[in-house]
């Protein structure tokens, strides 16, 4: 553990340089770094870059042990706007962290206009709620109302 922490500090990836060089692969690898701050920064950078190649890695980051990383991944997926993230973002509405749930809801709001037909069914299944309630949740997302998160 001590050696791992030491190596992690010495070999800290330079996220700014990766972003400047458009090193999407390097940033994706940084999502697996031992330091949560590096993982969070990598997710944020990928979102700012709207790196569509990172969608699968960011979906995996929604399961990270650290809530800051999960929140950053949800935000990045919203910025990227790829429909492949919808199911994972709906699932993130059940996250233990209110911040993650809020970012997932915001990301879904951005995506909901394109997935309007599929989104209520996904919400119903992932939140285990009746379709009628899922339709209200989706309508609330479109209006920017996230009161169902409470």
Summed up:
The protein has one domain (2-149): Alpha Horseshoe (Leucine-rich Repeat Variant).
Overview of this structure, please?
This protein is an all-alpha fold and 150 residues long. It has one domain (2-149): Leucine-rich Repeat Variant (Alpha Horseshoe), CATH 1.25.10. It has 10 helices and no strands. α4 packs parallel to α6. The radius of gyration is 16 Å and the shape is elongated.
Explain the layout of strands and helices.
Layout: H1 2-10, H2 15-20, H3 24-30, H4 36-49, H5 55-61, H6 67-80, H7 86-92, H8 98-112, H9 119-127, H10 131-143
Helix pairs in contact: 3-4, 4-6, 5-6, 6-8, 7-8, 7-9, 8-10, 9-10
State the secondary-structure class: mainly alpha
Mean pLDDT: 87
- The string of secondary-structure elements, in order, is HHHHHHHHHH
Radius of gyration: 16 Å
- Reading off the top of the CATH hierarchy, the class is best stated as Mainly Alpha
CATH evolutionary superfamily: Leucine-rich Repeat Variant
**Dominant shape:** elongated
Instruction: Quickly count the domains.
Output: 1
- If classified by CATH, what would the architecture be? Alpha Horseshoe
Flag low-confidence runs: 4-9
Beta-strand percentage? under 5%
Question: Span from first to last CA?
Answer: 38 Å
Helix content: 55-70%
Largest sheet report = none
Number of strands: 0
- The total count of helices amounts to 10
The CATH topology is Leucine-rich Repeat Variant
Keywords summarizing the entry:
150 residues, 0% strand, mainly alpha, Leucine-rich Repeat Variant, 67% helix
């Amino acid at each position: 553990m001590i050696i791992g922490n030491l190596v992690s500090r010495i070999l800290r990836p330079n996220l700014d340089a990766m972003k400047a060089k458009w090193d999407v692969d390097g940033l994706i690898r940084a999502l697996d770094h031992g330091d949560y701050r590096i993982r969070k920064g990598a997710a944020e950078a990928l979102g700012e870059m709207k790196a569509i190649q990172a969608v699968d890695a960011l979906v995996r980051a929604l399961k990270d042990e650290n809530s800051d990383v999960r929140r950053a991944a949800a935000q990045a997926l919203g910025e990227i706007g790829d429909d492949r993230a919808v199911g994972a973002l709906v699932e993130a509405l059940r996250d233990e962290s209110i911040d993650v749930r809020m970012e997932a809801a915001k990301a879904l709001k951005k995506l909901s206009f394109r997935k309007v037909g599929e989104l209520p069914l996904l919400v119903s299944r992932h939140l285990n709620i009746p379709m009628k309630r899922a339709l209200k949740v989706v309508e609330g997302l479109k209006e920017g109302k996230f009161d169902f998160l409470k």
